[in-house]
Specification:
The complex is a heterodimer. Chain A is an alpha+beta fold. Chain A contains 13 helices and 17 strands. Chain A has a six-stranded antiparallel beta sheet with strand order 1-2-3-4-6-5, covered by helices on one side. In chain A, strands 10, 11, 13, 14, 15 and 17 form a six-stranded antiparallel beta sheet that branches. A three-stranded antiparallel beta sheet of chain A has the order 7-8-9. The chains are: A alpha+beta, B alpha+beta. At the A-B interface, helix 1, strand 5 and helix 13 of A face helix 1, strand 5 and helix 12 of B.
Chain lengths: 432, 431
């Protein structure tokens, strides 16, 4: 073991618990934040530019500004930045601590993830990067090492903007990192937009699907040549079970020509969800719903139109999903109700004492009075499945624990429905 | 004078300038570059830190207290954002409140109008009640710890829980501070609860009203003696315009026996508002202070679910109007961008000149403008049936309020909608 520089016991005001890792220009520590009583990851960045007598000051300022901007990204699949400091001695970023590893460990042929999980992960990344893009932020350094994971398919993209600063003027090529995930325009040092992230995400997807990088090269020069000039083999070359749909997605994400590459993250995500459904990737677990399916389904329902992506993910997390067969009674008059539902697919009827009150189409909520009435509420009618249906249930207790923003969106959406129903009722009253 | 220059930064925060200093602390105006805002950073030099054994304990206590105080989010409490501790000093990062402290209004030449003093005391009493609900006692309420922002009545209580920051085992009596605002139980070094703060607020109120401290002495020990033994003369002795009701309130707040004082900040605030209303007959509405508005809203069932910080927001965004009988407030068919809550009086709701309903205090009208997200046309006309007081809330103003505040409005309106829908359905099925 090399004689290491004295281990830090403190970074700024944060006591160090242990070192998490180190790179060429940075060290990451697990620290405690005593004021907010939480664990945080603190990344200490070393760059000569910080100490440059002329530009050091400007550079330090830029560091904090960039981190502050990235700190505005609050999304379930983006690692939250809490603080950034650049003083004369130390430059560091304080981030959410994610207990898990990076996607690097799934990039080897012997450790590949099942296809459905890979698609789930890439799907979440594309939605998170779309969110960042809408906030005006491009990552520029998407690679497996910058995507943390916890649990089955929960991911968090890290190092937004930060990577850029750490390396400063020296390009990433000249620095120690590999250009393997860089886009052709990045290699050529052309101006970049969010499509550079699309390309890098395509490379990550290729890597996760096959355990290989799309371009193999003995040296960086050859790699750069291939990135700019060679068409990669489709992932299915290396793993035959990969459906053509996924090959096509990787091809489009990695298109050298910006015109041919995905212009909108949304299209990238949609294609992923589409292949997932078409190929029945989640089929082995028939009763289960993939997170991407939940997200896509909810995103399309008019009820959730005003919900942000982060809020939709919250709903996906707190709701339970199931299939219901025709004839099944979902709710019974007089029973206490502590959840409400959305009809994601199929048809249900609402009856009271055998009399038909309403037929609901996909997208409509039912049983919501349990949530809206202030006190314990009994179901006012029966709900029965007419044709095989997909039912999303939201327990009121779990909703109560959701974020204020999410609950507020529910209230707004219900309000709109009630306003509509009320004006209908008033119309009928005055029409009688 | 060899004043040392202000440091370039305190902890991570670049210093803009020094704001002040006390016996064991300094306060700096700093920049928070990450969050892009100005903050006040208080640096403290507790003796305890120099002792290795007590230092450890102190560190732990420091963070516990600071985190707890950081949970106080209230418009009249200076927010604590962060805290840290180093080798020989600790620091607390707080909301920067630019005005000054109440000390400025404590001498006979610079007194505030009585109405404003009541307003300030009211806000402090409610803020202390809020803190009490979270289990926090201040222990050092004094004019120097009540800051104000734009106007004297825009107050923020600061240094919550940080009375501890002196850190020394020497109590404040023998220490440097003045005991003038301390309660008898504090003087006797007994266990104290939130009622010690109500006593201290009573003293602050006394001083803001009269320009005098209730107990004055040649030395600290004489003051200590008086605090435990004497009844102070009422504030009106020093300023004749102080109404009898306020004398009574100060007397009750400053009872030596905590059991005979106000038992809660709410109770204290309630009597203040009553005194304000009994006050020499100012025309209402025109002169309505924020405290009065707050109290009026607090009493309405519609706002029952609003916590204090949210209700203060409503006070800020609402427009209070006295309307004469017959005044038309909403006209059928016109576009609407506001809704109203009735404080006093009665409204007639008509459609095609046909009376639909009468609305009374606590009820809303015009809320469909807010509820329907798209442009809305008024469905009925509303006019004052008699002289009334209303609060008008602009939809655009509400959109700018905090999410928590808007959320409460939405919950309130949802309740109303559910009720109306039930009513309509009953009419439909019975018809």
């Amino acid at each position: 073991m090399a004689a290491e520089a004295a281990t830090r016991t403190q970074v700024g005001k944060y006591p160090v618990l242990r070192k998490l890792g180190e790179g060429a220009t940075s060290e990451v520590y697990l620290c405690n934040d005593p004021f907010n009583t939480r664990d945080v990851a603190v990344k200490v960045v070393f760059a000569d530019a910080f100490h440059d007598p002329e530009r050091g000051r400007l550079f330090r300022k830029l560091f904090v500004t960039e981190a502050s901007l990235a700190g505005k990204l609050q999304h379930p699949h983006i690692c939250q930045i809490y603080d950034a400091v650049a003083d004369d001695e130390l430059h560091y970023i304080v981030m959410e601590y994610v207990d898990g590893g990076t996607l690097e460990k799934f990039c080897r042929p012997e450790a590949l993830l099942p296809l459905d999980r890979t698609v789930e992960i890439v799907f979440k990344c594309t939605r998170a990067l779309e969110f960042a893009h809408k906030m005006g932020i491009t990552h520029r350094d998407i690679k497996p090492a910058n995507i943390l994971h916890t649990g089955e398919t929960d991911v968090k993209i890290t190092d937004f903007g930060a990577a850029l600063i750490a390396t400063g003027d020296t390009t990433q090529i000249a620095a120690i990192g590999s250009p393997a995930y860089m886009s052709p325009e990045q290699v050529k040092e052309h101006p970049l937009n969010h499509q550079t992230d699309v390309y890098s995400m395509g490379v990550v997807m290729h890597h996760l699907l096959t355990g290989r990088l799309p371009f193999q090269a003995a040296n960086n020069f050859s790699l750069i040549y291939q990135i700019t000039n060679v068409e990669p083999e489709p992932p299915s070359t290396y793993r035959p079970e990969i459906p053509a749909g996924l090959d096509a997605i990787v091809r489009r994400a990695m298109a050298k020509d910006l015109e041919k590459r995905y212009l909108r993250w949304e299209d990238f995500s949609l294609d992923l969800a589409e292949v997932f459904r078409a190929e029945h990737l989640g089929a082995q677990k028939a009763q289960e719903f993939a997170d991407s399916e939940k997200f896509e389904t909810l995103r399309k329902l008019p009820f959730f139109e005003q919900f942000s992506d982060a809020e939709i993910w919250e709903v996906a997390r707190i709701s339970s999903w199931r299939h219901a067969a025709a004839g099944e009674r979902l709710m019974k008059e007089g029973e206490p109700g502590d959840y409400f539902c959305f009809l994601a697919d199929g048809q249900v009827k609402i009856t009271k004492k055998g009399k038909l009150l309403n037929l609901l189409r996909a997208g409509e909520p039912f049983g919501e009075m349990a949530y809206l009435a202030k006190t314990g509420h009994a179901r006012g009618a029966d709900v029965t499945v007419m044709s095989d249906a997909k039912i999303v249930s939201v327990p009121t207790e779990r909703l109560a624990q959701a974020s204020d923003a999410c609950r507020h969106k529910f209230d707004r959406a219900f309000m709109e429905i009630l306003v509509e129903r009320l004006s209908m009722a008033n119309l009928r009253i005055s029409g009688v | 004078m060899s004043e040392p220059v202000a440091p370039e930064r305190v902890a991570n925060y670049p210093v803009v300038r020094k704001l002040g200093e006390g016996a064991t602390s300094e306060v700096f105006l700093c920049q928070d570059p990450f969050r892009d805002r100005e903050v006040a950073v208080k640096r403290i030099f507790p003796e305890a830190l120099r002792d290795p054994v007590r230092g450890r304990l102190f560190r732990k206590l420091f963070f516990t207290e600071a985190s707890l105080a950081g949970k106080l989010q209230h418009p009249h409490i200076a927010q604590i954002y962060d805290a840290g501790i180093g080798e020989d000093s600790g620091y607390i990062v707080m909301e920067y409140v630019p005005g000054g402290t109440m000390e400025r209004f404590c001498s006979a030449q610079s007194l505030l109008p009585v109405g404003q003093v009541v307003e300030i005391a009211f806000k402090c009493a409610r803020a202390l009640a809020y803190a009490q609900a979270l289990g926090l006692t201040h222990r050092d309420v004094k004019p120097g710890n009540i800051l104000y922002a734009a106007e004297p009545t825009d107050v923020r209580i600061s240094d919550f829980g940080l009375a501890l920051d002196v850190g020394a085992e020497t109590t404040q009596i023998t220490g440097i501070g003045s005991p003038a605002y301390m309660s008898p139980e504090q003087i006797r070094e007994e266990l104290v609860d939130h009622r010690t703060d109500l006593y201290s607020l009573g003293v602050v109120m006394y001083q803001l009203l009269s320009g005098m401290l209730p107990f004055r002495g040649e030395n600290k020990f004489s003051i200590i003696y008086q605090i435990t033994q004497h009844e102070p003369p009422p504030p009106s002795t020093h300023r004749r315009e102080v109404p009898e009701a306020l004398d009574r309130i100060v007397r009750r707040a400053m009872q030596k026996d905590a059991a005979r004082r106000y038992q809660s900040g709410e109770e204290f605030a309630k009597e203040l508002i009553e005194a304000l209303r009994e006050g020499p007959g100012e025309p209402r509405c025109e002169q309505l202070g924020e405290a009065d508005k707050f109290a009026a809203l607090r009493a309405m069932p519609f706002f029952a679910r609003f916590v204090d910080p949210e209700l203060w927001e409503v006070v800020r965004i609402g427009l209070w109007e006295a309307v004469p009988a017959g005044a038309a407030l909403v006209r059928e068919g016109e576009p609407g961008d506001f809704f109203c809550v009735i404080v006093e009086g009665e409204m007639r709701v008509t459609k095609n000149k046909k009376l639909l309903t009468l609305l009374g205090p606590g009820e809303c009208f015009g809320e469909m403008a807010y509820l329907s997200q798209t442009g809305h046309e008024r469905g009925a006309s509303v006019a004052a049936a008699r002289a009334s007081t209303i609060v008008r809330i602009g939809v655009a103003d509400l959109e700018r309020a905090s999410a928590a505040c808007r959320g409460k409005f939405d919950r309130g309106f949802l309740g109303i909608l559910v009720e109306r829908l039930n009513l309509a359905n009953t009419r439909l099925t019975s018809g």
